[in-house]
């Protein structure tokens, strides 16, 4: 693992805390306050914040490694840690005056949000008036700021807007079967004035900022699935070893044969390793910044989706041979199974759009 800011090492400490609090987070449908404090104290929020505002401008490789480490203990905690980093990187697109507002109280401000253009914005003297609702805003109960996206009149474009806590309401709507601890509730903004300095054209994200958003979007999601799958492998191996010690796997006995367990271990661990290698390369490419080519962007998008498919296959295979005990609510394996399958539904990890993007250039060249 790449180290630089110490984020990965601190993530190891957060992993153990998050593991102990995972059941509580599930029950409460949001992280516990001490885990949120660990996310912020561990440096996730400041990881992509400009140095001039107290951040460290860290690498994508270190970020992805750290998120995966936390997810070995609790995927929901890792997801919110990823949000804290990723949305701060989005906020860094704001004009300098807006950045000063967001990080005036320190670089560990917890920024959450949505890039989906689900709101409406109309010009007003000195800025904009914004309204709308945005669902699935992970970590919002603990947020200091939210960045939301709204359409301009006559759908002439879309802009991002940063609002401080108090300028938006939170509606408790999160009831997902997986990633229950993320507290992904709904943000509601009712005709709030946002100054021009806290707004930016959404196209800025695609045009590059420091790196095109499409080249890194999946990297905010897939590492959490990777860590959760690694955690599932550890749990499955431990439980299976105990099952074998009690006589499972014997010829003529109940349940799968020993060879079945051996095949599951070998194939699933290989798929997890393969996914990790794909994400490692994607993060390395992301760290090249604005020098990323269109072909590399398409490959990154493909690899986010493909690595997630590998992780889902690995976890599903393990869970299918975990027996009835694996489905017990007391067994964290079932949580990892639900979490990985839930993460895989994120739009940034959808394989078909990735395939369209990846195949468009080669097929276009062949047809020319």
From TrEMBL:
<dbReference type="InterPro" id="IPR037069">
    <property type="entry name" value="AcylCoA_DH/ox_N_sf"/>
</dbReference>
<dbReference type="InterPro" id="IPR013107">
    <property type="entry name" value="Acyl-CoA_DH_C"/>
</dbReference>
<dbReference type="InterPro" id="IPR036250">
    <property type="entry name" value="AcylCo_DH-like_C"/>
</dbReference>
<keyword id="KW-0378">Hydrolase</keyword>
<dbReference type="InterPro" id="IPR046373">
    <property type="entry name" value="Acyl-CoA_Oxase/DH_mid-dom_sf"/>
</dbReference>
<feature type="domain" description="Acyl-CoA dehydrogenase C-terminal">
    <location>
        <begin position="221"/>
        <end position="350"/>
    </location>
</feature>
<keyword id="KW-0560">Oxidoreductase</keyword>
<dbReference type="InterPro" id="IPR050741">
    <property type="entry name" value="Acyl-CoA_dehydrogenase"/>
</dbReference>
<dbReference type="InterPro" id="IPR009100">
    <property type="entry name" value="AcylCoA_DH/oxidase_NM_dom_sf"/>
</dbReference>
<dbReference type="GO" id="GO:0016787">
    <property type="term" value="F:hydrolase activity"/>
</dbReference>
<dbReference type="Pfam" id="PF08028">
    <property type="entry name" value="Acyl-CoA_dh_2"/>
</dbReference>
<protein>
    <submittedName>
        <fullName>Hydrolase</fullName>
    </submittedName>
</protein>
